[in-house]
Amino acid sequence: MNLLDLSASCLASAIVAADQITALAGTTPSSGGAIGENDVKENKKNARLKIDGSFVTDADMAAQQIIVDALHKVSSGIRIVGEENDEEMRSRVITGHEKRLAIIFQLARQELIMRHDRENQHESIRDYEDGNSFDLPLAQRQNFDDESTVFDDQEQSDETKKFEVDTDRISVFIDPLDATNSYAKGDHEPVSILVSIVMDKAPCFGVICKPFGYPGQTSVLNTGCMAVYGGTFLGGVYIAGGRAIAHLAEDLPDDIDQNRRKLPRAVISKSRSQGIVQNFVTQLGERGIIHPEPLLVSGAGEKSLRIITGFQNEGLWFYPKGGTSLWDVAASDALLRAMGGRLTDKFGNDMDYSKSRKEAENRDGVVACYDKQLHADCIRIFLEGSWEDN
Fold first, then answer.
1. What is the dihedral of CA 143, 148, 150, 153, to 10 degrees?
2. Rounded distance between C-alpha atoms, residue 290 and residue 267, angstroms
3. Sorting pLDDT into bands at 50, 70 and 90, what band is 216?
4. What is the pLDDT of residues 112-139, one digit of tens each?
5. Which of 186, 317, 351, 365 would you label with 253, given CA atoms 20 to 30 Å apart?
6. Per-residue pLDDT at 235
């Protein structure tokens, strides 16, 4: 199979899956708070409980089906580990998006080729990064409905043969709608789509797509969504249709508060503002390792995006307990590896991506940092300490 085509398919299908998520965004729960049985019945998203007690919506299923079908067009035998149950997805048929997906796939493929050629960096990308007026294939001002944007596969076949790999080396992890509970309640800010390619047990390409966009950031084509992609396969992390990403703490204005400039901030869930998570980040703050005030952020994908982009100098996601799964972290793992960060369990061990869907829970938690040294400090201090979860 072709790793370039698979990467382009991951990116393009996430963008198209975002259409389903935004289209199905409907009413909020009648209670205005936590979702209850009556809300599940009345909610237009058809939110319902799964066996494990978590919620799922029609949008979760539709998004995963679009992504899985797109990946199978690249390789029918590829190993796919998705959050949603395969049997339930097989009962659904999602149509009407095929032409749109084909065009966006070609645009994504072209942009990835341009990104990959780092030694002979494409002149157009150099112009873009120098501030000149060039539109990348997935840039907001492009018109993806124009069929002339579709490239000839045959013309590019010789150029892309170098990306051929054995299918049995590859797995793809999919979280089609992260922060489902927030989505079902009408809170769209933390919602994301996570897709990652794992090759030889190591994530090499990841996508974090924000269906409802991200304030102040480039939208993909005219879709309204924003996507970040990259990994060791590309040697960097990028906004789709936009610029390369370094952790943005490096780009803070000179007159910004020095504590914010020097100290990264932890991102934690509001529900974890007490107990072991809060106790640990408080101690890191007291030691001057991170900013003393963590940011309260929902969703694994949103936390990951925050520490990758560092829009508010976010740098650490610390959660040393079960509750996340491999599909929650594989994309951020791929992106962090490409930008000098690290993601492991609480003991400093890499995630085991050979596990089956039923074994995918990260029982030993997640420690993710934009910087390897910060990660090493966190693991060392955690292992040296004695922590109570009160």
1. -160
2. 11
3. confident
4. 998 987 545 555 555 555 544 467 899 9
5. 317
6. 92
Q: Which domains does the chain have, with CATH numbers?
A: 3-239 (3.30.540.10), 248-384 (3.40.190.80)
What is the bridge-based pairing of β-strands 202-210 and 226-231? antiparallel
Whole-angstrom distance, CA of residue 94 vs CA of residue 176: 14
Please give the radius of gyration of the chain, using alpha carbons only, rounded to the nearest integer: 20
Q: β-strand 170-178 against 79-82: which pairing, if any?
A: parallel
Which secondary structure element, helix H or strand E, spans residue 11, and what is its range? Answer: helix 3-23
* The two three-digit tokens of residue 307, written as one number: 């520490």
CB atoms within 10 A of CB 340: 13
Contacts of 160-166 with C-beta under 8 Å, sequence gap 24+, read 160/2, 160/4, 160/5, 160/113, 163/2, 163/3, 163/4, 163/5, 164/1, 164/2, 164/3, 165/1, 165/2, 165/3, 165/199, 166/1
Between 288 and 147, name the one with better pLDDT.
288
DSSP states of 88-127 as a string?
A: HHHT----S-HHHHHHHHHHHHHHHHHHH--TT--HHHHH
Over residues 345-357, the pLDDT tens digits come to: 999 999 999 999 9
5: its two tokens: 């085509």
The DSSP string of 167-222 is GGGEEEEEEEEESHHHHHTT--TT-EEEEEEEETTEEEEEEEEETT--TTSPPSTT
Q: What is the pLDDT of residues 249-304, one digit of tens each?
A: 444 444 444 444 579 999 998 776 678 999 999 999 999 999 999 999 999 999 99
